[in-house]
Design goal:
CATH architecture: 3-Layer(aba) Sandwich
Strand order of the largest sheet: 6-7-8-3-9-10
Number of helices: 7
Mean pLDDT: 91
Helix content: 25-40%
CATH superfamily: P-loop containing nucleotide triphosphate hydrolases
Radius of gyration: 17 Å
Structural class: alpha/beta
Strand content: 25-35%
CATH topology: Rossmann fold
CATH class: Alpha Beta
Oligomer: single chain
Number of strands: 10
Number of domains: 1
Distance between the termini: 25 Å
Amino acid sequence: MALLSLQSLAKSFTSGNEEVHVLVGVDLEIEQGTSVVITGESGSGKTTLLNLVAGLDAPTGGRVLVDGVEVSSLGETALAAFRGRTLGFIFQFHYLLRDFTALENVLMPAWISGLPRASALARAQQLLADVGLSGKLRQYPSELSGGERQRVAVARALVNDPRLVVADEPTGNLDERNSETVRELLFDLVRRYGKTLLAATHDLRLASRGERTLRLAHGVLGAA
């Protein structure tokens, strides 16, 4: 069984008197341990698709199944537990909490999920070492560069040992040097830890790293 299955997924909304169809009958299956990258023009619906996978939005048709669970059928409590247990999300902007250190930011999902503090701390420290920031655990976001903040965000997405990592334009706010660093780290870590990756990007170099690359256009997902 696929870890992620999108079945006739559709999303539309009303703008004035017009119904806008963002996604139209999207079908996709992703096996555990594989990486899939979705490309497409700005406004093509890439972020909408990822938000549906993460349960941050609800479809108007079709289903999202993650590990056999229909995401849109979950209530708020179960959905929060699903995100904490199964999903790691990396955004274009790091969204680090400014009053917490790099280590505390990485630990935050583990604290919220109630993971044992000792094991969560060890994992957070290891992940920050993995992304080259073992010397900056006590630094606050304002003391880190943009690339370093995004590396903290990558570590944070992995701290709860999720099966699925969803990344929305993870290099979109970085210069080329930092983009290359984050690209290398992201694919190295998901491969090393056996994670499944679904990413959306304009970054063609990132797209080329995926085992499968698809293109979203006019609400339809197809070959790149």
